[in-house]
Amino acid sequence: MSLLNSTVSPENATGVVAKNYERVKEMAGFIPPLCEFLSINPNAQTANLDYAKTVFPHSTLTGKLLSMIGLLISNDSSCDYCVDFNEAILVNNFKISQDEIQAIKDNASSVTSLDDKEKALLLFVLKSVKDPNSITQNDITSLKNLNATELEIYDVINHGVHIVAADIMIDTFKIK
What we know:
The N and C termini lie close together (6 Å). Helix 1 (15-28) packs parallel to helix 3 (42-55). The chain is mainly alpha-helical. The protein has helices spanning 15-28, 33-38, 42-55, 63-76, 80-94, 98-106, 116-130, 137-145, 150-173. The relative contact order is 0.14.
């Protein structure tokens, strides 16, 4: 359900949208409301699925880190849909306790279930999303000193930007 009504339901999908729904079912096992909403523009839906395929699974960044990025960015932007979605992933797939989830929502630097590199990447993307102009060469050097590659640094920021964009779409159009 959303403020726009031109979506294509899975049972009425044909062509590109039907193929996209098949792809999503293979990846997630179900059709999330955001994917159905994106059927308004099949090209945008395809582009979003192509992006997701490049991120999940990532060759070096864990799903736990990527879900924590989603959780914390969405928590800061008050996107309840995405907070709930990422909490469910963290609890069900990575066995993160509700206590740790609440603790990192209150203070991201309190995360205990990521290694030092992933924790630093998490804090870096949160800093970048809040104030991209505050990022300096020292931030990049610190990440590299923890053996973060430039690809990993790029990919966490790219992921963070996609989360911000999704939060805006979801909240603007009241996707549920």
